[in-house]
Amino acid sequence: MSDINYNENELTQLTSGSYYRYSRAAGVAGYQKRRRQARAFKLVVSVMLMAIMGVTGFLFGRRLLDDMPLTDAGYIEQEEPVVVSEVEEIPTLQPTQIKLLMAGDVIMNDAVVQSGLKESGAYGFDHLFSHLTSELSGFDLRLVDQETGLAGSKFGFGAWMPLNAPQELGRAEVSAGFNVILRATDHTLDNGTEGIHNELAWWESEYPNLPLPGIAEPDPETNPNLSDYVNDVYIYEKEGLKIAVLNHSTLIPEESQGVVSPLTEEKIVADVRKARTAGAELIVACPHWGMENETEPNEEEQNFARIYADNGVDVIIGTHPRVLQRAEVLEGPDGHKTVCYYSLGCLVSSLYSQNFLGGLAEITLARDENGVCSVQSAVLKPVVTHRGNAEDYTVYMLSEYTDDLTYSSWDYDLTPEEAARRCTEILGEGYNTELCELNIL
């Protein structure tokens, strides 16, 4: 019992055994009482702690249940999900460029035809374009105005009138890189409808997919809709950007109805509508118009140019005058701008010295990432017909033409200096004599 404490009075009374026994029992009873009280206190504290923990757990669990996703399979009803409205995004388009080059009249009179005659009696005309192939190579669309028909040997070659060339000319044009042959001219029917039929049959057999705007099959059995001919709308597409090429001609005989595409206001409106319906975002018109050997556009050209511009055509490239004419930018009633080359002159000629200076139209058509389409640039670069012997009869870029070449030709008057003077006189002060080019836009 060493853990029981006695006070001084209790110790003095220990001589009496009875007291001792009583006191010991009392001490033990007191100790046991205190032990029971301590256990009771601990029990009460434990119960209180358990109660607090239980309440806390209940509240925390209730909050977890409130935050849990509610499913159809459970007993708690699921809340409606919050839907975030999507903002419609404008698609970004891939910027695209279509580079277009066009050359002027190819006129095959006797001297040009004779330059391609071989000892075997066959013809070949690759030499006419051999110095242009590098210039053409950087373009998607490469157009040439083939003034002379390819009616076949039955009609003879090389005459002043009617114009007709060996079909090997077409092969040389394609070999040089031209991929659109424009055929609406005042000489398309020189060899009658049979000549047109023969030419179209040859193109179909040799290059069935080559576009030939401005001309149609004259045989009613093959083409029963001659009077409704509108096949001169050619659509070129690159990466979703569509370009239309139109080809019209004045100075065509009445019997050309439905065979050669006429240059009239009604036809322009119809073809522009057809091009837009086909999805064309930019339109290039190639009219055969004007008067020969006039370096200034006449009233007819300017009137039709205005009709083209007012109908939303983007580029006009004219042929037929045989000489260069100025170029300018026209503005339509809605502010739309139209680049107009009134005449590119001749690409190949054996006529007069004034006809040996021609030009190439070089144009960049573009669509930006927002889908806006426009003419990005427009340049005119002069070319020279070099009249040499046999395969030396060819065409040069004026920028590559030299005095030595001039003196090796049949004509000595069209020196590079004289050509620059004529270009400045016709095209205006904007013509750059060092670069040999006119920037129109």
Name the CATH superfamily classification of the largest domain: Metallo-dependent phosphatases
Care to count the β-strands? Answer: 15
Name of the CATH architecture of the largest domain: 4-Layer Sandwich
Distance between the termini: 121 Å
Estimated structural class: alpha/beta
Note the beta-strand portion. Answer: 15-25%
Output mean pLDDT.
84
What does this structure look like?
The chain contains ten helices and 15 strands. The chain folds into two domains: 8-65; 96-439, Metallo-dependent phosphatases (Purple Acid Phosphatase, chain A, domain 2), CATH 3.60.21. It is globular. It is of the alpha/beta class and 441 residues long. Residues 1-31 and 70-76 have low confidence and may be disordered.
Quick structural gist:
With about 450 residues, the protein is an alpha/beta fold. It contains 10 helices and 15 strands.
Topology overview:
Elements (H helix, E strand, L loop, with lengths): L7 H5 L4 H51 L28 E11 L3 H6 L17 H4 L4 E5 L22 H9 L3 E3 L9 H15 L27 E5 L2 E9 L15 H13 L4 E7 L10 H12 L4 E3 L9 E5 L5 E5 L4 E3 L8 E11 L5 E14 L7 E4 L5 H5 L8 H12 L3 E2 L4 E3 L2
Parallel strand pairs: 1-2, 1-10, 2-3, 5-6, 6-7, 7-9
Antiparallel strand pairs: 1-11, 4-5, 8-9, 11-12, 12-13, 12-15, 14-15
Keywords:
441 residues, alpha/beta, Purple Acid Phosphatase, chain A, domain 2, 9-stranded mixed beta sheet, 6-stranded mixed beta sheet, 10 helices, globular
